[in-house]
Amino acid sequence: MHKYLYINKAIHPFMMVVLLWLFASCAGEGTATDDPQGVPVASATVALRDLSSRREVTAPVVAYQRVYITAQTAGQVLSVGFEEGDVLRKGDLLVQLDTRRQEAQLQRAEATLREVRQNHRRQKQLFETGIIPLAEYEAIQRQLEEAMAEVAFWLVEVDLGKILSPIDAVVTDKLIEMGTHVSQNQRLFTIEDHQLLVVRPGVSEKDVVHLKKGQQVDLSFDVFPDELFTGTIRRIFPAANTITRLFTVEVEIDQTATTRKLYPGYLARVHFFTGSREAVPAIPPEALFEDDETLVVFVIRDNVVSRRVIETGVRRDGWIEILSGLQGGEMVAAGNLEALEDNAAVIVRGEFRRYGFRN
């Protein structure tokens, strides 16, 4: 009995050592860092991507040239030549006012002018022969000038009764009817030139510095969701709006160059490029490792990684621009970077995928 107990006490410490060794061996199996074939990583390819900065701003389409037609003389409307939607040519007769009073005044002024001219010819002959003094001749000269001015005035009054279109345009508002009486300066029509349309969105000061006159921009409209139109920045207002703190950018739309007919009132979505970064090499942020404030990537070649210092540019839409250190087509590790070091063996388990961002 005592012998058995002695042997049991002697073997017990040895067995404990064996058990601890077996436990440690089993726990170490299957870890990534002890894999004799390499560290498992995901890979990402350095690809050329468009990382340009874009801004989408909405604003309604308006006619660049809008004219309010007003009556420059009072009178009754005898005829109205056009209504909403009609196309006008420059010089078309919009409204004819009753100018019989003005015409009568014109006839009276013309009769007075004829009489003064006859008297002026007689007085001139008398002045040239020395019969009348200079002061008397100058008085008749003034009467002639006043009579001529009176005729010119009533000629204008009669002419103002014919209201003509000053431009090629479309009638958007007709505010009178035949037979009504209009007063001087009363608004009669609104006409617009629909060949030249503009959009005037507001842009922040951070974006407006990247825009310039003559720059082309893309436009889209909800009524034509699958089409893109081209506009041109016509001008940039020199001061920001005092309330919104936004700068107005006027974008011109040439109707003669569009495939679809656009109308004022359409909501335009203006796509501004505020920073050009087209076809630049880029990687996902997951492939970037920061080592003592130094940006590092691990380039994969033949299942071995090499540590490389790089310089980066803009970070946009889930990608980082590479300024130096990498070239398009190279493969970098994009996962498990903490387990990597220079010249470490790796096993590429899959390719890094980015969803929900611009390609």
Can you describe what's shown?
With 359 residues, this protein is of the alpha+beta class. It is built from four helices and 23 strands. It is elongated. Residues 1-34 have low confidence and may be disordered.
List key phrases describing it.
359 residues, alpha+beta, 6-stranded antiparallel barrel, conserved putative lor/sdh protein from methanococcus maripaludis s2 fold, elongated, disordered N terminus, 4 helices, Elongation Factor Tu (Ef-tu), domain 3, Helix Hairpins, 6-stranded mixed β-sheet
Helix and strand arrangement:
Elements: H1 2-28, E1 39-45, E2 47-49, E3 53-70, E4 75-80, E5 87-88, E6 93-97, H2 100-128, H3 134-160, E7 162-164, E8 169-174, E9 181-182, E10 187-199, E11 202-203, H4 205-208, E12 216-221, E13 224-236, E14 247-254, E15 267-275, E16 280-283, E17 289-291, E18 294-301, E19 304-309, E20 311-316, E21 319-324, E22 331-333, E23 346-351
Parallel strand pairs: 1-23
Antiparallel strand pairs: 1-22, 2-16, 3-10, 3-15, 4-6, 4-9, 5-8, 6-7, 8-10, 10-14, 11-14, 12-13, 12-15, 13-14, 16-21, 17-18, 18-19, 18-22, 20-21
Helix pairs in contact: 2-3
